Amino acid sequence: MMTCLDIGGSGIKGAVAGGVADIEMLGRLRTPLDDFEAFVGAIEEMLVLSPAPAGSAVSIAITGVVDPADEVIKCANIPCIDGRRLAPELRRRLGRPVAVANDADCFALAEAVAGAGKGHRIVFGTILGTGVGGGLVIDGRMIVGAGGFAGEWGHGPIAATEVGAPPVAIPRFPCGCGQVGCLDTVGAARGMERLHRHLHGLTLDSVEIVAAWGRGDAAASRTIDCYVELVAAPLALVVNVVGAGIVPVGGGLGKSAALIGRLDAEVRKRILRRTDGPLVVQAQLDIEPGLVGAAILGGAS
């Protein structure tokens, strides 16, 4: 039995795991952003709520990237942990084993082992939400690249500058990572909203755009056409490079079955492998996938 945490910029979600199919939620606490002592204190508070034995392992899915070489985390959303060797510090402070991994990687691991990717050798878990992210799992093992970077298909100056029928020019928007023209700037939820404003001069949130598309709204349909084209081509390239047999999609935009179905059809048109079966699919896990992934990371089976 272990305690699992999913830590984001707004909240810490906790659970106790006896196994992948035996996860019980503990609750949610606010994430302290600027005070490391308060951050450790919040984790300790969650451990008090956990029925896991004293000294048992803690496994954490977290926003940010952990360098496997030195365990230093890069985390813009939680400044008090940025640049720290977080896992070693927590091991020392908590007096118990601690594992820490990127939340998108944990999502991919959860879907590969217990969700839509079950039975597939190579799974590319994709996040289409506040940002565009992902994680790669091969033979049930999370792939962590140099510097901790793997699956980060949302970043790099690759966004198309002309899409749609008739074609429309798409600006190269600046990205929070410091580059210009990243897929994240048009493929994330905020990116869809930015695209809608660019095309129509209208401000709607992504949920409203997808809903309007479902009702047959012409402006929203134009936005979705352009959005899918922008996202499908880079995702098809990722599939060709890693050989993914399935691509589960999480995040807010992943909740739209119609949008993911449309994206699946467009990606399958662009990949080398011919398949009539679904490739890009909705994530399946009902329990928080970050917590399930953390449990698997910590050794739960």
From TrEMBL:
Q: Which UniProt keywords apply?
A: ATP-binding, Carbohydrate metabolism, Kinase, Metal-binding, Nucleotide-binding, Transferase, Zinc
Stored Gene3D superfamilies: 3.30.420.40
InterPro entries, sorted: ATPase_NBD, ROK, ROK_cs
Which reactions fall under this protein's catalytic activity? N-acetyl-D-glucosamine + ATP = N-acetyl-D-glucosamine 6-phosphate + ADP + H(+)
EC numbers: 2.7.1.59
Look up keyword Nucleotide-binding and say if it applies. yes
Enzyme class, spelled out: transferase
Q: From the UniProt record, list the coiled-coil ranges.
A: none
What molecular functions are annotated in GO for this chain? ATP binding; metal ion binding; N-acetylglucosamine kinase activity
Q: What's the name of the protein? A: N-acetylglucosamine kinase
Q: Which organism is it from?
A: Devosia nanyangense
